[in-house]
Design brief:
By secondary structure, this protein is α/β, with parallel strands linked by helices. The protein is 29% helix and 12% strand. It is built from ten helices and ten strands. The strands form two sheets. The protein has a five-stranded parallel β-sheet with strand order 1-5-4-2-3. It is globular, with a radius of gyration of 18 Å.
């Protein structure tokens, strides 16, 4: 098995580790439609040397209408292996936002039993700001063997969220912006109701970051979660618009000391599209 990694690594750390035979760098960029950006095209124009593009919108459950839902362990293992990532590799993933979609990729690997993965603090923007080396084109690695070991404790489904309305077995934290959470702003996806899962609290994921896109220190994060009335010693499930920034919120919670955190994979793309579950506004 590969060596362990912290949840987040610095650009300095990655610059020193580049070229290590057991290290794989992934560009896991994904953007909202309104950004009008082509993540793979941007990757080809410039990426961290040796980085492989990880297509979140392809490595998903294609039978599910909800975007970017987790694929089966078998499909994940096949597609990740085809990218040249093995179960023995250490992985660093970044994105161009930053800290938007890279935590989603890290969470996917952890769900599939691979803990030796870290998110690059500050992402590609910080790397470029520091004038570190960049290469163009597309990197192709030799196929590898990845063995997935599914960890259901890191994932919650619609049924779990619905039961929780009565059981209150876990707290729910929503990482969307306050306007969408309250229902004052419309959802970007057509046909979606506005509001939030009843009883959930709002912690906008962008508030976990410094102006340079790096994540806040643990004590600063603890203050944010305490202000949101989240108890870090009790189970928490994170949600968002489409299951992406919920993973950034999960990473922030774990960095603050929470030990029992999972992601509602369908998030608002699933809950908000249904008429048989309640919605709260305000």
């Amino acid at each position: 098995m590969s060596q362990s990694l912290p949840r987040v690594v610095s650009t300095e750390w990655l610059a020193g580790a580049l070229g290590s035979p057991d290290l794989v760098v992934l560009d896991g960029s994904l953007y909202l439609p309104e950004a009008k950006r082509d993540p793979r095209g941007d990757y080809r124009k410039g990426h961290i040397p040796g980085a492989v593009f990880f297509p979140i919108d392809e490595i998903r459950d294609h039978a599910n209408p909800v975007p970017v839902m987790m694929p089966s362990p078998a499909e994940f293992a096949t597609k990740v292996g085809a990218l040249g990532v093995s179960s023995n590799d250490r992985i660093v993933v970044y994105d161009g936002a930053p800290f938007f979609s890279a935590p989603r990729v890290a969470w996917m690997f952890r769900v599939m039993g691979h803990d030796a993965i870290a998110v690059l603090d500050g992402g590609f923007p910080k790397w470029c700001m520091e004038k570190r080396p960049v290469e163009t084109g597309e990197v192709k690695r030799s196929p590898a063997v990845f063995k997935a070991r599914y960890r259901p404790e890191l994932v919650r489904a619609l049924e779990d969220m619905h039961r929780n309305l009565e059981s209150h077995a876990f707290q729910v934290a929503d990482s969307r912006g306050p306007g969408r959470f309250s229902g004052r702003e419309p959802e970007p996806r057509p046909g979606m109701r506005s509001g939030h899962i009843p009883g959930s609290v709002n912690v906008y994921y962008n508030n976990l970051l410094r102006p340079d896109g790096t994540i806040l220190a643990p004590a600063e994060l603890q203050n944010i979660f305490t202000a949101a009335k989240l108890n870090l010693n009790k189970p928490i499930v994170t949600s968002c618009g489409g299951g992406v920034t919920a993973c950034a919120l999960l990473l922030g919670l774990e960095r603050a000391g929470a030990r029992d955190v999972a992601v509602y994979d369908g998030s608002w793309s699933e809950w908000g599209a249904r008429q048989d579950v309640p919605v709260e506004t305000g």
